[in-house]
Amino acid sequence: MRVIFLSSFFFVCLAFYAQKKTITITESVLKQRALSPQRTLGFSWIKNLSEYSLLSSDYKSIIAYNLTQEGERVVCNVDEINAKLSSENQILNLYGYEWLTSDELLMNTGNVIFTFNVKTKQLVLKQSDLGDYENVNFHPRSGNCAYTLGNNLYLNGKAVTKNEDKNIVSGQSIARNEFGIDKGIFWSENANYLAFYQKDESEVAEYPLLNSNTTPGSLESIKYPMAGQKSEKPRVGIYNCKTKRTVFIKPSNNADDYLTNFAFTPDEKYCIIAEVNRAQNEYWLSVFEVKKGKKIKTLWHEKNQKWVEPEHPAYFIGQGNDFLWMSERDGFMNVYLVSFDRVTSTFAFEGKPMETLEDGVKQITNHRFVVKDILEVDAKNKRIYYAATGENPCNTMVYVTDLVGNAKALSKNEGVHRFDLSDDGLYYYDAYTSMTMPNHEMIYTTNGKMAKLIKESSDPMLDYALGTAEIGTIKGKDGSDLYYRMVKPSNFNPQTKYPVLIYVYGGPHAQMVTNTHNAGANLWMNWLAEQGYLVFTLDNRGSAERGFAFESQIHRQLGTVEMEDQLTGVEFLKGLPYVDAKRFAVHGWSFGGFMTSSLMLRHPGVFNVGVAGGPVTDWRFYEVMYGERYMDRPEENEEGYSANALANHAKNLSGKLLLIHGTVDDVVVMQHSYSLIKKLVEEGKQVDFFAYPMHKHNVIGKDRAHLMEKVLTYLIENNR
Hints:
The protein contains eleven helices and 43 strands. The longest helix is centred in the first third of the chain and has 17 residues, at 2-18. A hairpin with a 6-residue loop joins β3 (61-66) and β4 (73-77). The chain has three domains: 39-131, no CATH class; 138-363, 8 Propeller (Methanol Dehydrogenase, Chain A); 460-718, Alpha/Beta hydrolase fold, catalytic domain (Rossmann fold, 3-Layer(aba) Sandwich), CATH 3.40.50. With 720 residues, the protein is of the alpha+beta class. The strands form ten sheets. An eight-stranded mixed beta sheet has the order 36-37-39-38-40-41-42-43, with helices on both faces.
């Protein structure tokens, strides 16, 4: 009977696996979203009601739900809105809607901005014909609309700046989007003032990009400040909407210092700016008078021998000018409460014990893990909701604290959470994903009681024959825990010897291994695992969400400790009985392309094959803002730049190396690949190269499927 049972079980298993669907390389790219767990669309609290709304699956209707009643109601749809819009302003969906009141919606489609009352069905057109404009910033209460056209800033159709010199750029983000900067236009509370970034790029070098779509081909130049060279000079303009006059705030010390983290105070009398010196080892958080642009005082001064990097603007609580400030001055990003009126002069924090913080500054959170962001402030109840990793850096958990610092975790399950607090502070939306939960969305009361289950999703990947992911840790050479993700075949057999692909990023501001569905792996990794591979990714020292001591070990030597940790990962893998120690491949993009090339050239023989996409090959060719933070200027760190310039290691290449680059890459310019190829040719080393015409730093759209087929085919064919 036992034999019959086992035989039957065997055939059941065969039938089970036979029923599993399969996908191709192309589908593993194009079906990435389709095979992700389903989420609700467009969750939003309705203003001043115990109700929330969602988008329908086709994005064409907004549906409202009451927390105390069953059922749902459609509050509006695309057809009834289009019936009130002219033919040139027709909309396709309701994506990006916003509740202004319990009855009124704001819609901004990029071409048209309007409000729509879901009860009266009245539509009020606010702005139209915006298709040619960029950086559109609409102030709902006043109806004012600011935007850029070319290098100038406009307000309600009239020019705020009139610079004929194209080197003077207003209203766009500056510093190449470093320091958390993602926009260049800022409204004051009541729209009496419009602030904007302005940069003077007169001394910044022109960098030529070839437009191969014209006949003949044409050059299109961008401004690209390389490490050690002339950089942009920033200013902050503050335009008085009543007097039509602008005052400018310049850096206090050097013209090419950075002006970051701009914020107006709620009373519109002042603005707060974090000024970072070009060396990026010191910053001053200062107050300026709005009317005249005059500096009033400095609220915070921080310096560090390696780098400082403010990334979050002042977060005001209520209508007063006291605010929350985020800093990692104690080694981890934490939240501080700054009393605007009590802090009266410049002070420095470096080396000071916590108990000697100046009068008017109080540390609210004191975690030995990373606070990632302030999510919401309930001013009435004096509660701060924020995202933090918790003890496991792979998580993103939600915490709440009062202004005294009594913090507690709000998230009930480990994973990566999304959060939204209702306007009255009585409820919150919590959605999370983890290795064991594809997607779970719930509403809780703020005292912790379950109010409503919105959605719990299954894993669509279970219907397919695809590799499965797991997370683990190994010890780095410095004793720290290094988190890894391993994707194994669905029919993994520990008695089999598997080749390995190491997928690497390794650079700052990125974390590859997260406690999310599929551990954050791309679907092509699961496809490759199903072809008989192990796909391994390790977050080395220098990667994000681990605190300053872990992340700053890369200072002045990008690539060195990162490679050390990646090779520790290789040794770990070689110690596993199911790993084929003679068949290792490596692939990465951007910083991961730098890591791939570095591992192939500086540690020859470890990998049979590597594919480096958009690789940095010499930090002298990379931008000022990022490069000088981690490497200092080339003349200040000749040894570090030379050690990590890959042309200096070209003679070491063994194995197969494919370099891939977008021809109009404006982040990692083509000079990186060209310079390395030139040296490899001089050294008599064969290298493969593939260009994606007219693609920037990332190959997107349907061409991405072509890219991954190119990458994976090359790796498989040459890792033998």
